[in-house]
Amino acid sequence: MAYGILIVSHVPEIATGLPKLLKQVAADISITYAGGTDDNDIGTSMEKISHALEENTADNILAFYDLGSSRMNLDMAIEFSDKTVNVYDTALVESSYVAASLLQAGVDLPAVEEQLKPLKVKGDE
Fold first, then answer.
1. CA pair distance 47, 114, nearest whole angstrom
2. For the chain, what is the domain count?
């Protein structure tokens, strides 16, 4: 089963820069991104996220985001997608890097998720 990665950030430069880093360790993994509002200001866009989801060549996506409102738009975009999307409440840079490198190495999803657990961002749970 092929997995892809989706990066969602409030900052367009983070959204475009992080995949450059990930491609260094995961050249064969489909990595797409959405950053900023429709006007490329700070924020997120459900339309940009939806486009990035559909642009990803994988049917199973691991999605990483930077702030809470990114999650809200990501969740809405997922509702309109036919893809299977797993969303991770983890440190954006570190966890997407871990996931990309492990997926490139052929590690299965449960093992990837186990490695992401220590990178979870603590909430009000």
1. 31
2. 1
